[in-house]
Structures are given as structure tokens and as C-alpha cells.
Amino acid sequence: MRASRGGGLPAVALLAGLAGAAAALAAEARGPAQGPPGLAAERFPRPQRPVAGIVSDRWSSEDSREHAGEAARVLDLLGIRPGMAVADIGAGAGYYVGHLSQRVGPEGRVVAQDLDRGTLDRLGQRVARERLGNVALVLGAPHDPRLAPRSVDLALLVHMYHEIEQPYGLLANLAPALRPGGRVAILDVDGPVLAHGTPRALLSCELAAVGYREVAWHWIEARSIYLAVFEAPAEPRAGRDHPCGAR
To answer: Do the Cβ atoms of 220 and 227 come closer than 8 Å?
Structure first.
């Protein structure tokens, strides 16, 4: 790589930095993406089921997912349109971030959230490289996505629900970030948690325990991968009075 004149940064690195700064300014113009801390983790019970370990920031290869048309189908089913604000919770390597950015357009916004700083840093480099000016990055916690109040129309959780250490806290702290009529959509495998899936009955139970209401269910691949859609409660519950057994 050839350095710029005067011994400064390499040209590619300089351009990436400028693109990243431009993206940050554009995202900030839409208002803050990160909100104040929510309710503390101690307010919520631990899930009565295993928690799958995070083995990668990618669920599968992007080429195979593109070939299967996964993102296009999911975003069509969810009615993602220009001007919407969508949060990608546990965004990982950012496969959905680019698709969402294109769908919501320059008047919309994508909040790419993750709880691993290294993963978020790598995603930030991708956002800068691809010049996604409507994308903001947020560092969250296992029990709290740390999104700004009433900042998104939809929160999307893709192949990561089974990895959430504190589902009741995360769901309760996520609800205030949704605008009126906002939805939460979860894409996962209808299988054991330790095999990186979430059984349908378990998912429905944990969401209901916090006060979410299921409004749609779609099978994405045969009867194994599903897209479940829920409406958020106006006043989320802590999940203590509605225990969901281990599965």
C-alpha cells in the first residue's frame, strides 16, 4: 500500500476514516442512538434453561445466505420500508446491517448493536468501508441493549436469542426503545438451545413473561428456521411470575 505524501496515513486508511466520520455525523443528525442505562440485571430472574455460547460473530457464510435469499425474504415479511428506524440487536459481522441500510434509505436509520466491543469495532470498519451513512453503532450489555427511548420502529434479533444471558432483562429494557406500534422480530432455529436454537414454546413463554404479544409467525426454511414477530408491552414485566422451564 502506498503512503500519502508527507508521511501521513495511507490513502485507503484516510478515506475509510473520513467515511467513518461522515457516517457518524449523519447518524448523529438523526438523534442519539444510545440511551441511558436501563433496569439493573438484579431486577430479573435468570433463565431456567441453558445459554448457548457465542462461537462466532457470523451465524453462517454470507454467500450461502445470499444464495438462499434469506435477508430479502425476512425484510419483505417484516415490511421494512424507506424512512424506518430498525435496530439490529447482536449485529455481529453485519450481514443484515447492509441490507437494512439499503432498505430504509437515507431518511431511515439502522442501529447496529452488539455487546462485544471488538465485534463492534470490526463492524464499524465495515460500515465505514461500505459508506453506510444511516448506520449508528451502540455497545450494549447482556441485560440491556442501551437504545435511546422511542428510537426504533423494529428490533431484529437474528440467530442470537439463544445466546442471551439475561433474556428477561434485555426484553424489558428493549421495550422502551420501541416507538408506538413497534415490533420485535426474532429469527432462530426451532431446536435445542445448546445446539444454537430456541424451541418455539420456550421463545413464546419467555416473551410472554415480559408482556410481549405474538402477532406473526413465519417458517423461513421448512419447519426449522422461523421468524417470530411480537408487539412490545407498554409496561414490561420482570418475568418473575411466569417461569419458563428448561428446554
So the answer is: yes
In one-letter notation, the amino acid at residue 151 is S
Between the alpha carbon of residue 175 and those of residues 89, 163, 222, 242, the distances in Å are 13, 19, 30, 18
pLDDT surpasses 80 at 14:
no
The 3-state DSSP class for residue 1 equals: coil
144: β partners: 141
Sheet holding 109-114, edge to edge: 135-139, 109-114, 85-89, 152-158, 178-189, 225-231, 213-221
**More confidently predicted of 162 and 10:** 162
Give me the amino acid identity at 23.
A
Who contacts 121 (Cβ-Cβ below 8 Å, separation ≥6)? none
Residue type, 198: T
Pairwise CA distance, residues 54 & 33, whole Å: 25
Direct distance between the N- and C-terminal alpha carbons of the chain, in angstroms, rounded to an integer? 52
CA distance 91 to 100: 11
SS3 161: helix
Lowest-pLDDT choice from 22-31, 88-97, 184-193: 22-31
Residue type, 9: L
Q: Whole-angstrom Cα distance, residue 103 to residue 70?
A: 14
Look up cell 420502529; give the residue.
Answer: 153
pLDDT average, residue stretch 192-211: 95
Say how many CA atoms lie within 13 Å of 222 toward its Cβ.
3
179 and 206 Cβ atoms separated by less than 8 Å: no
Instruction: Find out whether 114 and 105 touch, Cβ atoms under 8 Å.
Output: no
DSSP, collapsed to helix, strand or coil, labels residue 3 as: strand
Q: Catalogue the E-assigned strands of the chain.
A: 85-89, 109-114, 135-139, 152-158, 178-189, 213-221, 225-231
